[in-house]
Amino acid sequence: MALPVYKFDLGAYETKMMKKHIWDGTFVNARLHFNGKPFAVRIRYRGGHTRNYPKKSYEVRIGDITYHFNAEYDDPSMMRNAMSFHFFQTIGVPSPLTRHCELYINGVNEGVYLLIEAVNRKFFRRRKIKVRSLMYADNDSANFSLVSPDTRKRKRTLFEGYRLVIGSDADRTKLKRFVHNVNKLQKSRPAYLKRRLDSDNYLRWLAGAVLTGNYDGFDQNYALYEHAPTGKYRIIPWDYEGTWGRNCYGERCSAHLVRITGYNQLTEALLEQKHVRSRYRELLEQLVSTAFTTSRIMPVVENMHQRISSYMYRDSNRKWPYRTFASEPDIFRSYIQERREIVLKELEKL
After folding, report:
1. Which of 91, 97, 156, 276 could form a disulfide bond with 117, CB atoms 3.0-4.6 angstroms apart?
2. Conformation bin of residue 298: beta by default, left when phi > 0, alpha when psi is -120 to 50
3. What's the burial of 190, exposed, middle or buried (CB within 10 Å: 0-12/13-18/19+)?
4. Residues 136, 96: Cα–Cα separation, whole Å
C-alpha cells in the first residue's frame, strides 16, 4: 500500500521567515495539497535540538486541528514512536495515532515522515474523554519533585517543567498543590493519591515506559490531564523515539538501561504502598506473558518495516544508511527477548 503524500507550498517570504524564526515557533501561512484537495494551513518548525538537523520536523495547523510531522531523524528504524504508541494502545493507555507518509515542500521530496496526532481537545473528543485541564511535561523538571534537577535546589515554582495547554491559573495551582502533597504528606498520602490519581492508568503508563525502555519518559515527554468526571490525574506518553534498544540519539543501548520502578518522585510515593506494588507486579507479569512478546509485537514491526522499506531506500535525507534500517527488526526482536528476561528477574525483587 502506498504511503499518503502531503505537499506544502510556501512563498519566498514565508520560507525566509520560517528560517529566521526557527527557534521561536513562529507560524507562517502555507498551502497543503492532500488527496487532490488544497487546504490553507499554518506551519512552523518543531522539536528541541532537532531543529538543528538537516531534516527538520514540522507542526501544521488546519483550523483547530494540529498535526505533527516528525522527521524521526535520530531513529534508524523510523518506527520507534509509532511502535511505542501502538504498544501503549494495546495495554489500555490512550496514545497518539500515527501514520507514515511522504512530505514535499515546494516540490522537493523531503522523504519519509511520521505523522503524529496532537494531544489536545480534539484528541480527547475523539476518544470521548472529558478533560478539565491538560499540561505538557516539556523538560525534566516535570519530575514530581520539589527539587530542580538542574540546580539541585528547591524549584522556584512547582509548576516548573510544565506547560498549560487546557485550563486556567486555578489548574496550575492545583497541580502545584498535587506535587507538594506527593512530597510532603506522610500518613495521609495513600488516601490522597487514591483520591487524586488514576493509579490504574498510571501503572499501565509506567509499565509501558519500563518495557519499551524510555529513559527520558519518566520526568518529561508525557502529557498530564485531569479527568473531569473523577477529578483524578491521568497520563499520556509522548516522544518515544529513544526506545526498543536505542537511545534518543539512535545509538544502541543496553536492555538494562531502565529499572522497572522508573525514575520519578510520584512513582516512588505510589510504590511505597504494598498493595500498589503487588498490583504493579501482577500487571508487569501479565504484560510480559501476553502483550510484550515477540509473537505479538514482531508481526506489527515487520509489517510496518516492509511498508516503508522502499520509501526509506529512496530517502536521501536520512542520518542512517539504508543497511542499518534494513536490520532494525532484528534490533526490536533481540531487545524484546532481553528485556523480558530482565523484567522477570527484577520482578522477583519488587
Report:
1. 97
2. alpha
3. middle
4. 14
Contacts of 2 (CB under 8 A, 6+ apart): none
Q: Which long-range contacts (CB under 8 A, 24 or more apart) does 283-290 make?
A: 283/203, 283/204, 283/207, 284/207, 284/210, 284/211, 284/260, 284/343, 284/347, 285/344, 285/347, 287/91, 287/207, 287/211, 288/211, 288/340, 288/343, 288/344
Closest by CA to 224, choosing from 237, 235, 232, 239, is 235
Looking at 36-94, list the stretches that DSSP marks H as alpha helix, in order from N- to C-terminal side: 80-90
| Contact call for residues 88 and 234 (beta carbons, < 8 A) | no
Tally of CB atoms within 10 A around 29:
13
**In whole angstroms, what is the distance from residue 129 CA to residue 142 CA?**
24
- Average pLDDT over every residue of 199-207: 98
Round to whole Å and give the CA distance between 332 and 324: 13
* Phi/psi of residue 70, nearest 5 degrees: -95, 130
Note the maximum CA span of the chain.
63
77/240 Cα distance (integer angstroms): 13
What region, left, alpha or beta, does residue 52 occupy, with left being phi > 0 and alpha being psi -120 to 50 degrees? alpha
Q: What's the CA gap between 280 and 39, in Å, rounded?
A: 47
* Region of poorest pLDDT, from 2-16, 38-52, 290-304: 38-52
Residue 119 makes CB contacts below 8 A (sequence gap 6+) with 96, 134, 136, 165, 223, 236, 238
Alpha helices in 113-168 (DSSP H): 121-126
Which cell is 343 given? 523484567
50-96 tens-digit pLDDT: 888 999 999 999 988 899 999 999 999 999 999 999 999 999 999 99
303: Cβ–Cβ under 8 A, 6 or more apart, which residues?
A: none
- Of the chain, the end-to-end C-alpha distance in Å amounts to 45
Q: What is the dihedral of CA 102, 320, 306, 330, to 10 degrees?
A: -150
Q: Can you tell me the distance from the alpha carbon of 115 to that of 134, in angstroms, rounded to the nearest whole number?
A: 22
Q: What is the CA radius of gyration of the chain?
A: 21
